[in-house]
Amino acid sequence: MNKWTKALGVIAATAMLVPLAACGGSRGATTAGGSGSDTVKVGISMPEQMLERWKIDGENLKKQLEGYGYDVTLQYADGKTDLQTSQIQNMANNGMNYVVIASIDGTATGAAAEQVAANGGKVIAYDRLVMNTDAVDYYTTFSLEDVGRMQGEYIEQKLGLKDGQKGPFNVELMAGSPTDNNAGYYFKGAWDVLGPYFKSGVLQSKSGKVPASADDWQSIGIDNWDRQKAQNEMENRINSFYNDGTKLDAVLAQNDAEATGTYNTVEAAGWDYYPIITGQDAEKANVQAIVQGKQSMTVYKDTRELAKATAEMIKALVDGKEPKAPDTFNNGVKDVPSQLLTPVTVDKDNLKEVLVDGGYISAADAGL
């Protein structure tokens, strides 16, 4: 569809003078309100199902959108970048008016997003920004640096650093997947808190795997946020630097998969204690690990609210209204209008109140 056909579709939909189908195809349906004969078609591309959160995200978003009467296609890419690209391209070719993309690799999905745009659809980046393209229209996520800041502040609090404890304390650091744009923000948030303590010598890492700055976070990244890779990494560090009785005080694990890999390694080492271990996503198994004392905390991002915000954004666009997107994130090409939600720190002290009483997880699933 060329830009003149697209413009005519918008004018006709606004004036409500002619049927949408006469305006040149599916793009008209994205601006018309969805009350006509054309069905709004939405594609959802999720990265995988191995991490519980993405399965929950996909199902929540699909349910929300179907509640508006939209025709929804949900696909998971099994952690394979090529498969995700192919799935998004197929969505574009099948005339999706909107495609929601939670990228495996935010750069790799750019070309597929451009195909969606070329076919007249709009692209909403979900939790992970699509990079280096002007084809992404909106972005919904959580306040990214706050996630890392909460993890860093938890370690700071539990080690008594603000109270003047001098240590030195042994802290090992892991960042997220080098292909995930969000991971850099997570680490920056944590490093803003912990970095000064490393520079002063209050914190140290026996492995020496401490980035020179927040910009060097990829040097300690765990590919694809993979649990087994995180476990292998921690096994190497523990076996090499902490098997002589040296105490490991804390581990900055930036999601629950990395946290799982860490406490699995500690268990295998036969230690009689667990270091402070952070996390993110409030996976059921990790919530149970917090109850059991294996993991210290997780950053809870209520994906029900993220799905709701994304669905409401699409609904506003369908209805010809301006969606709520008061913030922006730069993806290397443009400042993408964004909506940021607020994460919450969860540990054993507030787990029941936040997760169970809040209806996110049952008491049984939490191990209570």
* Dominant shape: globular
Question: Over all CA atoms, what is the radius of gyration?
Answer: 22 Å
| Sequence stretches where pLDDT stays below 50 over 5 or more residues | 1-37
How many alpha or pi helices? 12
Spatial order of strands in the largest sheet: 2-1-3-4-5-12-11
The share of residues in extended strands comes to 15-25%
Helix content, binned percent:
40-55%
Q: Cα distance, first to last residue?
A: 56 Å
Whole-number mean pLDDT: 90
Alpha-beta classification: alpha/beta
Give the biggest beta sheet.
Answer: 7 strands, mixed
Succession of helices and strands: HEHEHEHEEHEHEHEHEHEHEEEHH
DSSP summary, beta strand count? 13
Structural account:
The chain is α/β, with parallel strands linked by helices and 368 residues long. It is built from twelve helices and 13 strands. The chain has helices at 3-15, 52-67, 81-93, 110-118, 144-158, 181-200, 227-241, 256-269, 284-292, 303-318, 351-356, 363-366; strands spanning 41-46, 71-76, 98-101, 122-126, 138-142, 169-173, 203-204, 250-252, 276-277, 297-300, 327-330, 335-341, 344-347. A seven-stranded mixed β-sheet has the order 2-1-3-4-5-12-11, with helices on both faces. Strand 8, helix 8 (256-269) and strand 9 (276-277) form a beta-alpha-beta unit. Helix 2 runs parallel beside helix 10, helix 3 runs parallel beside helix 4 (110-118) and helix 7 (227-241) crosses helix 8 (256-269). The longest helix has 20 residues, at 181-200. The radius of gyration is 22 Å and the shape is globular. The model is unreliable at 1-37 (pLDDT under 50).
